[in-house]
Amino acid sequence: MIRTLVLVALATMPTLATMSTLARAGESARDAILADYAAQSRAADPAFAAFSAQRGETLFRTEWAGGDPRTPSCTSCHTADPKNSGRNAKTGRPIDPVAVSVNPSRFTDSADVEKQFGRDCKSVLGRACTALEKGDYITFMAGQ
Ligand code: HEC
Which atom of ligand 1 has the smallest separation from the CA of 123? Predict the structure, then answer.
């Protein structure tokens, strides 16, 4: 009995250690991306103080008018609950959840993040998102 417990503990320990290491690595990669958007936001507006999860949520949920009519909102593909898996409204392909609590690798690769903001903001808003909007969005998702 005790031997089984010890074996279970030994078997799970490295997994837990790896998971928290990965989560920490994700956090610092995400922080670096946010720091970059913060620098851009400050350059665009010296009064910039901080990103806002609330503004990020509004961006996520707003039904915009300027984009592709199939995708009026970020929720068109990512669903109203960021913890849920999404579905691409154009192709029907599944999309992994965007909430960081369920998907810690979210917003950790700056090239992917930039590419996808470029595509998705054009599709939904009909224009590029500003650095402020990108930082707000990631800040909202990091708390979800
Ligand atoms: C047409 C469907 C669609 C819509 C609408 C959409 N997205 Fe996405 N989004 C995707 C797909 C597909 C991916 C890439 C697959 C993945 O990351 O799981 C993605 C990924 C992302 C990523 C990259 C995340 C990461 O971890 O690198 C960001 C950022 C993003 N979306 C932002 C937005 C924002 C902001 C909106 C609303 C303005 C939005 N998306 C609306 C389909 C969509």
Answer: 5
